[in-house]
């Protein structure tokens, strides 16, 4: 079944710092016209890091869109010309002060495919060594470590409420069980 | 550490069908002013459903923001006055033609907390019985079933590339291992 929607008109309404807004007219395969509201957003990388004690690294920061602090794995926007894996390593250095000896891809995914072009690349970092890069100026971040079981408990009680972080934690728990831990 | 960002000015730039765009001026705890580009988006519900054979239900639909078809768990916007659990049940009936005998909450999370207010509520549905509701007119959807192992393989090879779907699959795999399956 062909489901492709073809653009017949595109109207950029806003060009901003981290996102653009576009409203497109599209033709459905049936010929019917529809409107699509699209947020253009740069891709991002995130990294689930485990330390020598088996603890997972998290950052707590105020998220204005959520109106509160969220507990998340380190993440940030992929810069022009940057490889997403390098973004993951850079963000871990900036936000937590570690560089991974080993980096493994977990998955890439769209965060909100109903309206946003943002694709997120998630990595798993281990064999950490201390290596600090300066943080972005307007980022106020606290770091903390949780055991995998504590992290999972915080998903259940709502303290962890971020899509990429939840996907990464359950990925890790699933690997642990596979490895008989 | 107080990280709260306080709004000092708010400017709505667009009011649309599924989203609004707002650019706010905020004061950081240090007193420094910053700009926040915020997409206001209605909350949504999604549902991971397992049938009597242990297969998981997916829908394939064209996602214009991604420029391709994506394989996702059934999902949709929470309507005015609707309970998110009822949204999950309604979407499963509309998109797959089943009603769950049992519905369990997996998690609630922000999809893109860097700019979007959208919160997604994810449920697990089992003990399915046939019960079809008509689909939205402009939704072209194909349904399919995958074993949990097939679903996981499609994350690894990139065929499943949607945040909520990946979080739900790894949640399910982790439960399976916990239950010794």
Number of helices of chain A: 3
Assembly state here?
homodimer
The share of residues in helices of chain A is 10-25%
Rg of chain A, nearest Å: 19 Å
Distance between the termini of chain A: 44 Å
**Based on helices, strands and strand pairing, what is the structural class of chain A?**
alpha+beta
Please tell me the overall pLDDT of chain A: 95
Q: List the chains of the largest interface with their residue counts.
A: A-B, 69 and 69 residues
> Helix and strand succession of chain A?
EEEEEEEHEEEHH
Number of strands of chain A: 10
Main beta sheet of chain A: 4 strands, mixed
Describe the structure.
Two copies of one chain form a homodimer. Chain A is an alpha+beta fold and 181 residues long. The first copy, chain A, has helices at residues 84-96, 148-156, 163-178; strands at residues 6-15, 19-27, 33-41, 44-49, 56-63, 68-72, 75-77, 98-110, 119-130, 142-146. In chain A, the strands form three sheets. Chain A has a four-stranded mixed β-sheet with strand order 7-4-9-8, with helices on both faces. In chain A, strands 1-2-3 form a three-stranded antiparallel β-sheet, with no helix packed on it. In chain A, helix 2 (148-156) crosses helix 3 (163-178). The radius of gyration of chain A is 19 Å and the shape is globular. Chain A starts with 5 loop residues before the first strand and ends with a helix. The mean pLDDT of chain A is 95. At the A-B interface, strand 2, strand 3, strand 5, strand 6 and strand 8 of A face strand 2, strand 3, strand 5, strand 6 and strand 8 of B.
């Amino acid at each position: 079944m062909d489901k492709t929607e073809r653009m017949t008109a595109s109207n950029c309404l806003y060009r901003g710092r981290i996102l653009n807004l576009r409203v497109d007219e599209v033709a459905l395969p049936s010929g019917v016209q529809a409107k699509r509201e699209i947020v253009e957003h740069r891709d991002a990388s995130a990294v689930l890091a485990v330390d020598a004690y088996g603890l997972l690294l998290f950052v707590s920061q105020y998220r204005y869109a959520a109106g509160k602090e969220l507990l998340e794995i380190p993440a940030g926007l992929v810069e022009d010309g940057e490889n997403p894996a390098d973004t993951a390593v850079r963000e871990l250095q900036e936000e937590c002060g570690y560089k991974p000896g080993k980096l493994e891809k977990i998955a890439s995914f769209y965060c909100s495919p109903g309206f946003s072009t943002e694709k997120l690349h998630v990595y798993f970092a281990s064999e950490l060594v201390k290596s600090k890069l300066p943080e972005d100026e307007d980022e106020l971040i606290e770091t903390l470590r949780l055991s995998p079981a504590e992290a999972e408990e915080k998903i259940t009680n709502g303290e962890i409420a971020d899509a990429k972080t939840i996907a990464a934690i359950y990925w890790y728990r699933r690997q642990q069980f596979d490895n008989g831990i």
